[in-house]
Structure formats: structure tokens, C-alpha cells
Design a protein that fits this description.
Structural class: alpha/beta
Radius of gyration: 20 Å
Low-confidence stretches: none
Number of domains: 2
CATH superfamily of the largest domain: Aldolase class I
CATH topology of the largest domain: TIM Barrel
Bound molecules: flavin mononucleotide
Helix content: 40-55%
Shape: globular
Largest sheet: 8 strands, parallel
């Protein structure tokens, strides 16, 4: 058992917040596969304050998804702490996570996300104000620094802990790297050596071999998985099955993971599609599943033919027909 603040977490495998991906339907699938902790997609603090309908939708979750964190981004400590109060009162997640790592232009241009890695005073002011504003735990997700000449994640993590942040997730790439190159796991280890709060390691974990390597190289408390889960929510099953955890000891007990059969994959595809259909307005629901279909079917025979068809459908029903056709083609 693992804890952030008083929140009990059943296993140390976290689903990464991913905008446009980790919506309620996908989180539900990941939870069923055994994810230990879920996050919302990042949510604009300004949108929350304006009570913007779409923004509020991003924060919709069910109790089955607990424990869950809502991740917010912004560039203003008053707006962010006010939005945190709204979240605590109305949305009631298990924690609030602060996005200090998003490298997307439209976010950093406004001084939010990873831009705060080069404005530590403001970052710490934001974190402190939010910690003071709410009673639930507040955590933060950071990068290694703004660029290779300004690696400051260790200093940042120490300062965040001092103002009451309850856990740090570190994705050890610089903002400039975006998603290229390799995550520098040595920074995860250094942070772990310098703070008492839980450290969640993130970056380039795609299977249980990677996970055990990250645990042993960094001593991190939990592992967050992003791109490794696209089309492969089974990864949470694999991690829970292959890695034995006793107290602080983590051991790879089973290296093999039988990849799910086509039948199992299509069972999940259709389940996921139904969740998407129930969650989104009819007009847009089919669009919300197109990328997932491409990820689930990556590497399967003739997948591009069916993917092209899926990309042109106008409804979930049409999508379901093509999925059924592909399924019978594969059988
Ligand atoms: C499509 C996509 C959307 C993302 N959106 C967010 C986000 O909203 N908030 C966040 O903190 N990180 C976001 N990230 C970064 C991931 O949470 C994670 O830090 C990164 O992908 C590295 O982990 P990985 O190597 O396991 O993918 C996103 C990544 C991707 C690929």
C-alpha cells in the first residue's frame, strides 16, 4: 500500500495525465486494467473560474475512478488558488496536481506549464497559495528544467516540498526537448535523494522490464506511464503481475507477458467505444475514438485499411460496423 498525504493507493502504477487521451472513458478502462492512480487531462484554471462548460466537463469522474487527481494549469496564483477551491468544493477529487511541465507553445507563451520552470519564484508562490487554499493534498508535475543549460528540477522539488507539496512527479526531459531524446532518469534519483515526499518517476516506461529498471535505478516510489499505455491499457495488468512488491523491495518475478488475443483486444475496443458513446454528445463521440482505434490496432494485419475507413465515419454506429468487420476479418 502506498500513500500521498492520507490517500491510500493500491499499487504504484499511475496513468499519466494526457490531454485529449485520458478522458473518463479511457481512465475507466485503465482502472479496470489495474492502474493504481488516475489523473484528469490538464484543466485550465481560468476556465474553471469562468465556469466554462467544456472545462468543467474535463473534470467529470465517477467514484469508480478513485483515487483520482485533477490537474490544473495557469500562470496566476490567485486564479489558480481560487480554481483549486472550486475543485475541492464541487469536484472533490483525492488531490489536485499542478502542471509545471507542459511544453506546448500556446501554454508556455502565457507563462504557464513548463514556462514556470524558468520562473521559480512564481511557481513557488502558486504552489504555496494553493496548498494554503485547500485541505486535500496538492502535488506537482515538473520537467528537468527549461533547457539543457538550466536543469533545476532538484532545486525546484526541494522548494515545492518546503511549501507543502505532497508528492512530485518528475518527467526528466527539458521543456525544449518536448518528447524527443531520452528521459534522464538520474534526475529522478537525485530528487528522491533530496526530498522526503513520494517521488513519481515518469518517462519512457513501456513494459515491466523498464519499470523494474526505473525502480532500481532511481528508488522512486511510483511510476507514471503515458505513451506506453496508448493502445495498451493491459500494461497495468502486466506491471501488477510481473513485479512483486514487498515493503520497499521490488522484484521482477515474471518477465513474460502474453499480449492479449485479438478477441480480448476487440472486447476492450468495443467496451471503450461504448463508454465514449455514453460520455460524449452524439455529434462528436466518434471523433473521440479515432486515435484510440489507431493505437489499439497498431501492427495488426491490414489495420491501415480499416483505420482509413474509421477516419471517415460520421457516427459511432458506423464505427462499430467497421470494427465488427475488421474483427471478423481477423478471426
Ligand atoms: C498526447 C499527450 C498529452 C499529454 N498531456 C499532458 C497533460 O495534460 N498534462 C501533463 O502533465 N502531461 C501531459 N503529457 C505528458 C505525459 O503526462 C508524460 O509526462 C510524458 O508523455 C512522458 O511520459 P511517457 O514517456 O510515459 O509518455 C502528455 C503527453 C502526451 C503524449
Amino acid at each position: 500500500m502506498f500513500k500521498i498525504g492520507k490517500t491510500q493507493i493500491a499499487n504504484p502504477y499511475f496513468l499519466a495525465p494526457m490531454a485529449g487521451v485520458t478522458d473518463k472513458p479511457f481512465r475507466t478502462i485503465c482502472k479496470e486494467m489495474g492502474a493504481g492512480f488516475l489523473y484528469s487531462e490538464f484543466v485550465s484554471s481560468e476556465g474553471i473560474i469562468r465556469n466554462n462548460n467544456k472545462t468543467m466537463q474535463y473534470m467529470n469522474f465517477s467514484n469508480l475512478e478513485r483515487p483520482i487527481g485533477i490537474q490544473i494549469f495557469g500562470n496566476n496564483s490567485d486564479a489558480m488558488s481560487n480554481s483549486a477551491k472550486v475543485i475541492e468544493k464541487r469536484i472533490k477529487p483525492d488531490l489536485i496536481d499542478l502542471n509545471f511541465g507542459c511544453p506546448v507553445k500556446k501554454v508556455v507563451k502565457k507563462g504557464a506549464g513548463a514556462a514556470l520552470m524558468k520562473n521559480i519564484d512564481l511557481m513557488i508562490e502558486i504552489a504555496e497559495k494553493i496548498v494554503d487554499a485547500v485541505n486535500i493534498p496538492v502535488t506537482a508535475k515538473i520537467r528537468s528544467g527549461w533547457n539543457e543549460n538550466s536543469i533545476n528540477a532538484i532545486e525546484v522539488a526541494i522548494k515545492l516540498e518546503k511549501v507543502g507539496i505532497k508528492a512530485i512527479t518528475i518527467h526528466p526531459r527539458t521543456a525544449k526537448m518536448k518528447y524527443s531524446g531520452k528521459a534522464d532518469w538520474s534526475i529522478i534519483r537525485e530528487i528522491k535523494e533530496n526530498v522526503e515526499i513520494p517521488v513519481i518517476g515518469n518517462g519512457d516506461v513501456k513494459n515491466s522490464n523498464d519499470a523494474i529498471k526505473m525502480f532500481s535505478e532511481t528508488n522512486c516510489d511510483a511510476i507514471m506511464i503515458g505513451r506506453g499505455v496508448l493502445g495498451n491499457p493491459w500494461i497495468f495488468k502486466e506491471l501488477n503481475k510481473n513485479i512483486s512488491i514487498q515493503d520497499k523491495n521490488k522484484e521482477l518475478i515474471n518477465e513474460n507477458f502474453t499480449h492479449p488475443s485479438y478477441q480480448e483486444i476487440f472486447f476492450i475496443i468495443k467496451k471503450h467505444l461504448k463508454l465514449v458513446e455514453d460520455h460524449y454528445p452524439k455529434k462528436i463521440a466518434h471523433n473521440m475514438f479515432k486515435s484510440h482505434f489507431a493505437w489499439y490496432t497498431k501492427g495488426m494485419p491490414n489495420a491501415t485499411i480499416y483505420r482509413n475507413q474509421i477516419n471517415h465515419v460520421k457516427s459511432i454506429d458506423e464505427m462499430r460496423e467497421i470494427i465488427d468487420l475488421y474483427k471478423s476479418y481477423l478471426n
